[in-house]
Design a protein that fits this description.
Blueprint (H helix, E strand, L loop, with lengths): L15 H24 L34
Length: about 70
């Protein structure tokens, strides 16, 4: 007589995590390839340096009294 064996719904093959990992790697590589292709290979930042000067007012000196000394002990 022929016996049929059925897997329980929670059982899977040991290759399933590797297949999911490989599918994720292929997806990430594909997204990066599309970004490089549509950007024309220009992924670097701007080539011209920009000098930014901030003319903020200076903070005035605050004359605070010395803190009281704590007793030793």
């Amino acid at each position: 007589m022929a016996r049929t064996e059925a897997k329980a719904s929670g059982e899977g093959s040991s290759a399933t995590p590797w297949l999911a990992f490989l599918a994720g790697v292929v997806l990430v590589v594909g997204i990066l390839a599309v970004l490089v292709f549509f950007s024309g290979g220009r992924l670097e930042g701007p080539s011209k340096a920009v000098n930014i000067e901030v003319d903020a007012p200076k903070i005035p000196e605050i004359n605070m009294p010395n803190a009281p000394k704590l007793p030793a002990g």
